[in-house]
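Hey, can you fold this one?
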Amino acid sequence: MSSGLSDSLKKYSVSIIGASGYSGAELTRLLLRHPFVELQELYAFSQVGNKVSDLYPALNSNSVYKQYSGEKKSDIYFLALPHGEALQLVPSLVQAGKIVIDLSGDFRLKNCAEHNEYYKQLKSPEAFMTYGMPELFLNQIVKARAISNPGCYASSIILGLAPLFHGKGRGLAVRAINCTSTSGISGAGRSSKTELSFSEMSENVRAYKVGIHQHIPEIMQALGTSATDPSFDFSFTPMIGSLVRGIYSILNIQLEQPADTAEIQELYHSFYQQAPFVRVRDTMTEVKHVVHTNFCDVHIASMTKKGSLTIVTALDNLLKGAAGQAIQNMNLMLGINEATGLL
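Sure. Predicted structure:
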């Protein structure tokens, strides 16, 4: 599939702004082995002057983290920064004609009021980029020059629900959805917070931001409604558990009318038939099935006679929930196979 950017075998130059965090490190690893790109610069802040191999020995790279001061030498820029920082950097990169993929939440929401409420920061109506979930918005992604990469929780939940809201699934009316998702500690980034230390999180699970997590409006937007005026009742309980990476989501859906389990299974298999990184599994999935991969596993767990449907999903928060999906989006924008460098 071609985006019109190039049909040649040229190598594109790529730089990462915010390369020293966990998502930045995964981007570095994936880009170093990608056949169509050449990793040019790795920008960081607290790690400026340090070698990549000192911070991440497994990457075996002699590159040194640099301070970003507005350079625009590369063809492609990935931004893996804390929320709020990309808002200041992306506009000039886009104006310079660069391909931009942002991993923060700064550009995901169309509704500015919802962004201001959930992210506690002001942004203009123009600060929106193409939402980069290939399984739902592939046609928009291949034409885009700037992509806002989905959030990790949002990816696990949207992919578990999308067949019910898009395509043939629109015939199944949804009354309510209750989501509970457990994330690995790496989802919080390379933080030194005491509550994320080994002694605090070992053999522990903790809920946080119940009902107010910033991925709620993103999920609702992707499902065709909004957090402000939802078309169904929605609740989300995020939890952090004593694992390093992975997200495990339990999605309890109340349908207006019961459906046959075989009908639901056929709906999901059909919807994801052309999606190389979504696996609809007939047996229960686990986090260990997906860590260190770009796969999201989806399992239709049960359907009651009263219309209660339970879906279970699993993905790696640093890959399909961040860096892997970003590379998948880049591939589509460059007109190459979306699985390149990811299998």
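The chain has two domains: 12-149+322-334, 153-315. Let me know if you want another pass with a different chain boundary.
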